[in-house]
Structure formats: structure tokens, C-alpha cells
Write a structure and sequence with these properties.
Elements lengths: L11 H25 L5 H7 L3 H29 L6
Helix pairs in contact: 1-3
């Protein structure tokens, strides 16, 4: 293996799924932090609603998907940065 090549054991699917799941976890943890510290009175608004479960699911899924995409894209760019084409 020369400099700039991927190892033979590299699995693109495992790489993508792992980073996507890690990003989703970061998004859920970010949502938990928003609610724990009641930033923007988000927790108060959710608890005042008649069905706070729907609001919790919607914001958690939205954050998880956003952070999953971001985490995966940044990891791909950092992993393959500086590699020669061809």
C-alpha cells in the first residue's frame, strides 16, 4: 500500500453506517442538552403542550438526521482530503 491508498480491508458501507450512527447519537445528545438546560424555553414549551411526545420525537429526529449528515460529510471530507485522483 502506497501513501494515499486505502487499506484492502476498508469497507465503505461500514464506514458510512458507523459515521451516520455516531452523528445521529450526537444529534440526540444535542437535543438532550437543549432540553436539559431549557435553552430558548424549549422544554417549558414542550411540557406545556397537550402532547409533548410528538414534539420530542420531531425535534429529536430532525436533530439526529441533521447531525448524522453533517458528521458523515465531515468525516468523508477529512478522510479523503489530499488523495490524488485517478
Amino acid at each position: 500500500m502506497t501513501d494515499g491508498e486505502l487499506p484492502k480491508s476498508f469497507s465503505g458501507h461500514r464506514f458510512m453506517i458507523t459515521n451516520w450512527l455516531l452523528g445521529g447519537l450526537v444529534g440526540v445528545l444535542f437535543t438532550a442538552g437543549l432540553l436539559a438546560f431549557d435553552i430558548g424555553h424549549l422544554r417549558s414549551l414542550m411540557l406545556a403542550d397537550s402532547n409533548p411526545t410528538i414534539a420530542l420525537v420531531l425535534i429529536s429526529v430532525a436533530m439526529a438526521l441533521t447531525f448524522a449528515g453533517l458528521y458523515t460529510a465531515v468525516t468523508i471530507m477529512l478522510t479523503f482530503a489530499g488523495r490524488k485522483r485517478g
